[in-house]
Amino acid sequence: MSDLSSRLKHARESREVSLQDIAARTKISPVALEALERGDVSKLPGGIFGRAFVKAYAIEVGLDPDETVAEFAALIAQAEADAAARGAIRPEVTADDRAFLERQKRAIRTLRIVLGVVAIAAVVALFWQLRTLWARSAPAPAAVTAPAGSTPAQAPSTPAPGPVEPAPTAPAPVAAPQQPAPVSAPLVVEFEVTGDCWIQISTDGKPTTSQLFRAGERRRVEAQREVSLDVGNAGTFLWTVNGRPAKPLGKPGVHTRTRVTAANYQTFLQ
């Protein structure tokens, strides 16, 4: 083993590289590197770890890594055979090797945690994008409305044919005062948007509409108690309450939320 050790040390010194430099670049402990240059088999790990050390050292000092590892493996085998013949037991892994392995395990665990967090964040972002696309593509429920105070039309009755007899003279009946026809709902909100605007509408506490309205689109909404409006672009929102023009909700680009009730709707009127 002395020939390989001396050749490794001579190659390092000819490049003017210190053991500390090699230890910093290869992450191999200086104790193991010194043992390698001394040919001290008892300070070197066996198996794949010893080969990895020798290969990294050879690359740093400019020697052929494969040939160096092959020579190291042959010499290790010979040294182990000699030690077995003498009844000596060579340590498999040193304390420095265990510390190195523990650092590698911690690094792998940290990497797995980071990858798991990134994967979860990607799934959440994808779910949010799909939810937004679905909300935009969902059709708005059609509002079924009827003219206020409308009553079903009655067909005129056709008298049966027969002789016409003069009607008896009688005092004309006094007509009862006509009652106003009931309105379809206490709150009727109608609106039109002059530009693209995302709007969410709830009537009497129940969501009814959530969609992107295009410029020129209109909608009529009826409620018994309240109408809640969530308008993303208030400057494009033109509306009336119970047939009367209402005040603007805000300037273009302003997001606003409004709650109109049967008790406060007059405060929104112009």
Structure description:
By secondary structure, the protein is α+β, with helices and mostly antiparallel strands. It folds into 3 domains: 2-86, Orthogonal Bundle (434 Repressor (Amino-terminal Domain)); 94-138; 187-268. It is built from 6 helices and 8 strands; from the N terminus they run ααααααββββββββ. It has helices at 2-14, 19-26, 30-38, 47-61, 65-86, 95-137; strands at 187-193, 197-203, 206-213, 218-223, 226-231, 237-241, 244-245, 256-261. The strands form 2 sheets. The chain has a 4-stranded antiparallel sheet, with no helix packed on it. Strands 3-2-5-8 form a 4-stranded antiparallel sheet. β6 and β7 (244-245) form a beta hairpin. It is rod-shaped, with a radius of gyration of 46 Å. 16% of the residues are buried. Mean pLDDT is 81; it is low at 150-160 and 179-183.
Short note summarizing the structure:
By secondary structure, this protein is α+β, with helices and mostly antiparallel strands. The chain has helices at residues 2-14, 19-26, 30-38, 47-61, 65-86, 95-137, and strands at 187-193, 197-203, 206-213, 218-223, 226-231, 237-241, 244-245, 256-261.
Q: What would you call the quaternary organization?
A: single chain
CATH class of the largest domain: Mainly Alpha
Overall 3D form: rod-shaped
CATH topology descriptor of the largest domain: 434 Repressor (Amino-terminal Domain)
How do the helices and strands follow one another from N- to C-terminus? HHHHHHEEEEEEEE
Ranges with pLDDT <50 over ≥5 residues?
A: 150-160, 179-183
Task: Give a quick account of the main beta sheet: strands, pairing sense, barrel closure.
Answer: 4 strands, antiparallel
Distance between the termini: 100 Å
